[in-house]
Amino acid sequence: MDKKEFTVSEVIDAIGISKHTWVVFVLLAFAMIFDGYDFMIVNSTNLFVAHTFWPDNANPGALMGSLTTWGLLGMVLGGAFGGIMSDKIGRKKTLIAAVMFYGLFTLPQAFANDLAFFAAFRLIAGFGVGSCIPVVTTVFSESMPSKQRGIFVTFGMAFMVVGWVLAGLIANPICNAATPLLGDFTNQVTYTLADGGTATMYANWRLCYLIGAIPLLYGVVLIFTMHETPHWYANSGNKAMACKRLTEIEQATRHTSHEYDPALLIVPPKPAKTGPNVLFSSKFIVATCAIWAAYFVGQFCVYGMNAWIPSWFVGLGYSQADSVALQTWNNVAAIASNIAVGFVSDKVGRKRNLAFSWLFCIAAIILCSIFVAPNNMGLCIALMLLFGFALNYAITAVQPLMPESYPTAIRSTGTSWCQAFARFGGSASSIVLGGIAGMAFFQTATGATNWSTVVLVLIVPFALGFICTVLFVKETAGKTMDQLAAEEEKLGASERDGNARFIIMLVIVAILAVLCIVCPLVVENWSKQPYALPLMAIGLLLPFVYFFVFGGAQLAKNKAAKASASLGDEASTKA
User: Fold this and answer.
1) How far apart are alpha carbons 418 and 401 in whole angstroms?
2) Where do the domains of the chain lie, and which CATH numbers do they carry?
3) Sign of CA pseudo-dihedral 82, 84, 86, 89
């Protein structure tokens, strides 16, 4: 490339898998492990935290579900803000700030004695967690060769699930310890059982949140070991630094002294606008509908189920320790699925892989509902492995599509806003499922929750995920980031007409938050009200109405534009 023009993607593809690839992979993997631990530690300790906060309430319901919600709401805000900052100030600075931020604000949660204190710091820490994930996805997509991009993006996300598993493995022995591990700090708690009796425990769960402060130290490591991506440098107008990084990457791999000429570096044109509203312009609305719909479904089901799996099995008669262990087995399977999905996605394509995954989820949840049983730990482990594999396969299959759907200038913004919106699904799911579980229709004759019936509700979002995948997802596998950007340019759609659609989506998100998060927490006996379920259904289904209306309309226009272009090409050929 000494005397001819080149792009960043061409150089990275030419270098292939290198020492640089693996250094980036390891650095991001640890960031995701800490990120995953910080999120899942709430789900792994929520039974014990609930006993501490509400010792006289044997069934906290939506209150217990909200322990998960506050962190997810923080992740919504952090994801939306962090993605924009990543596109503005760089991937490295944003990632370091995010990692240190959630480490710092996880620490005070260990000292919480009520929901208000816990929720406040959970919300703040979630801001850092939410900022971290989209930046990691973006760095993976910008640092890996095109042919292996899907594998590395999804494999990298597997380390977040490693963090989930570690949370379970660490929390289970700590929370169930028969003695106080930190003296008076882990005080004895007497709490009420469902049958009216009482039991005691020690608040050893606090130690789990002290451990969650370790990312503060890792942030310091990242300061000295992580580098900015050449894609970001090039897109920010600093071609000299982009070429310098490309030279450093090649030298580390091939031990050559090749230097790239900034004057020959081609940078794809930047969008006319770079704010979040451009994601809803005619140019990007179909891609936005595709990934927002699919990831919303995945987050709703993954986080909703993880919040309530321990309660499900406690209700079947399993001990608290066994119930948390079953949740951990569910997440162990997620690691395997996250690794597998990238290989399959690169082989069969993003769209076909994702469509199959939703059908797989429907089959898995039906099997779990029918066959889960008390006093059969082996069978329940197998079912949790199946469901954990299926559900996390689906949500991870969306991951490569997020950064591939947008050009460099708005890649992190697009990825982070997709994840932020989807976390409203995750924030709502633990509360909504908790509310549904309290409804008479889902109760047994003895007044206990029949979770095997509740989980069948997930068939509805799985089916919606399948429909939206078939309609809106465009195949992106094997194409360079520059090729994908060029394909969007050919359609000639506007980048400036997204304001109205953006405002409408914000209104829908507000309605969703009110009906599915605020009302269950504020309105007394919300789940007992006859209008509760219809209103929550409206809140959850409104985004899909939006996707079908606006995404469908633009999809039809895009097809018409392609057909017209094809006819023009044929006419030119005949002439």
Assistant:
1) 11
2) 8-228 (1.20.1250.20), 279-474+494-564 (1.20.1250.20)
3) negative
pTM for the model stands at: 0.74
Structure tokens at 543: 């985004």
CA angle at 462 for the pair 459 and 465, rounded to the nearest 5°? 155
- Residue pair 245/227 in contact (Cβ under 8 Å)? The answer is yes
Q: Which helix (H) or strand (E) holds 484?
A: helix 481-491
The DSSP-derived string for 109-142 is: GGG--SHHHHHHHHHHHHHHHHHHHHHHHHHHHH
The torsion angle over the Cα atoms of residues 300, 410, 78 and 126, rounded to 10 degrees, is 50
**403-421 core/surface letters (b: 16 or more CB in 10 A; e: else):** bbbbbbbbbbbbbbbbbbb
- Complete DSSP assignment for 248-263: HHHHHHH-------GG
3-state helix, strand, coil in the chain (%, to 5): 80, 0, 20
User: In terms of C-beta density within 10 A (0-12 exposed, 13-18 middle, 19 or more buried), how is residue 545 classed?
Assistant: exposed
Kindly indicate the confidence band of residue 14, based on its pLDDT and cuts at 50, 70 and 90: confident
Sign of the Cα pseudo-torsion (48, 50, 53, 57, in order): negative
Parallel, antiparallel, or unpaired: how do β-strands 198-202 and 188-192 relate?
antiparallel
Residues 32 and 157: beta-carbon distance below 8 Å: yes
**Scanning the structure block, which residue is given the tokens 């080149």?**
6
Tell me the per-residue pLDDT of 67-116, one tens digit each, with 9 for 90 and over: 777 887 788 788 778 878 888 899 999 999 999 999 999 999 999 988 88
- Residue 457 is which amino acid? V
Within 10 Å of residue 548's Cβ, how many Cβ atoms?
Answer: 18
**CA dist 552 to 249, 282, 289, 290, 465, Å?**
43, 11, 9, 10, 15
Please tell me the distance from the alpha carbon of residue 406 to that of residue 489, in angstroms, as a whole number: 11
Cβ neighbours of 14 (radius 10 Å): 12
Read off the pLDDT of residues 31-64 as tens digits, 9 standing for 90 and up: 999 998 988 888 888 888 888 888 887 777 667 7
Q: Which helix (H) or strand (E) holds 189?
A: strand 188-192
- pLDDT tens figures, 405-415: 888 778 888 88
Q: What is the pLDDT of residue 214?
A: 93
